UniProtKB/TrEMBL annotation:
<keyword id="KW-1133">Transmembrane helix</keyword>
<dbReference type="GO" id="GO:0030674">
    <property type="term" value="F:protein-macromolecule adaptor activity"/>
</dbReference>
<dbReference type="InterPro" id="IPR013783">
    <property type="entry name" value="Ig-like_fold"/>
</dbReference>
<protein>
    <submittedName>
        <fullName>Sperm acrosome associated 6</fullName>
    </submittedName>
</protein>
<dbReference type="GO" id="GO:0007342">
    <property type="term" value="P:fusion of sperm to egg plasma membrane involved in single fertilization"/>
</dbReference>
<keyword id="KW-0472">Membrane</keyword>
<keyword id="KW-0812">Transmembrane</keyword>
<dbReference type="InterPro" id="IPR036179">
    <property type="entry name" value="Ig-like_dom_sf"/>
</dbReference>
<dbReference type="GO" id="GO:0005886">
    <property type="term" value="C:plasma membrane"/>
</dbReference>
<dbReference type="InterPro" id="IPR007110">
    <property type="entry name" value="Ig-like_dom"/>
</dbReference>
<dbReference type="GO" id="GO:0035036">
    <property type="term" value="P:sperm-egg recognition"/>
</dbReference>
<feature type="signal peptide">
    <location>
        <begin position="1"/>
        <end position="26"/>
    </location>
</feature>
<feature type="domain" description="Ig-like">
    <location>
        <begin position="150"/>
        <end position="236"/>
    </location>
</feature>
<dbReference type="InterPro" id="IPR034549">
    <property type="entry name" value="SPACA6"/>
</dbReference>
<feature type="transmembrane region" description="Helical">
    <location>
        <begin position="295"/>
        <end position="317"/>
    </location>
</feature>
<keyword id="KW-0732">Signal</keyword>
Amino acid sequence: MALLALASAVLSALLALAVFRAPAWACLLCFTTYSERLRICQMFVGMRGPKLEECEEAFTAAFRGLSDTEINYDERSHLHDAFTQMTHALQELAAAQGSFEVAFPDAAEKMKKVITQLKEAQACIPPCGLQEFARRFLCSGCYSRVCDLPLDCPVQDVTVIRGDQAMFSCIVNFQLPKEEITYSWKFAGGGLRTQDLSYFRDMPRAEGYLARIRPAQLTHRGTFSCVIKQDQRPLARLYFFLNVTGPPPRAETELQASFREVLRWAPRDAELIEPWRPSLGELLVRPEALTPSNLFLLAALGALASASATVLAWIFFRWYCSGN
């Protein structure tokens, strides 16, 4: 039974090719079946006879202008509905004893107007990526195709000074689907500039469309890769070659130098360093020495001197009175 069904399908296809001698598969053949087209002609001219073949050829010729039509892939259902309505209208005309010589060209013109009103497919945006929103349906073969662009995008150069921040944005210039978009990052180190995936290793901690390295070091020289996927299907691969050049920033250099000096200090060297204790003259001459602690010390010294003078004056007064 399966072989019989397969043979029947093949014979039907060959019969359709023999009857409809179109130079290419037109939209008519994509959105209608052979049995539907044959039924329409039989309703116009009868079940048999030379008029039947003439009707079939006229049907094909009327829609030959749509053979090279390309439409937005998402508009296929709308065009299919339009062809379904067209077949019903032709059947009604045939039942009303209409003429196929008039009905077929008129139906083809109406379909051309319907196609012009469909939403156009987006243009392909180079240089790379699987751009689903630019997918087109071709009536010339009843199939769809996307932009003929590579999945790998050109390498972008990023240059930073050692110690600065390096940031990569995994953004493409074409529209991405809204659902199930994921980003994964890889790295090929050793200063290698490459798009060969065998040199890359995964970076599991990197997530999202932004990646940042801080501070950038010489060991970070190499190529970073971001893969954009929808439901595990790659849509684009972006590459960033990071070139780390020059010395670190001055502030970092001074801090590292100070830290190295601290590490190199010996205990005996530390004993040679004494805290600065300004004298009273230095306190009065150098305003920057009048810190809060030094001001408190001056106040304490003043109070002590005043108390000492009072005690000495009282002792002198007692001694003087006792002598008299």
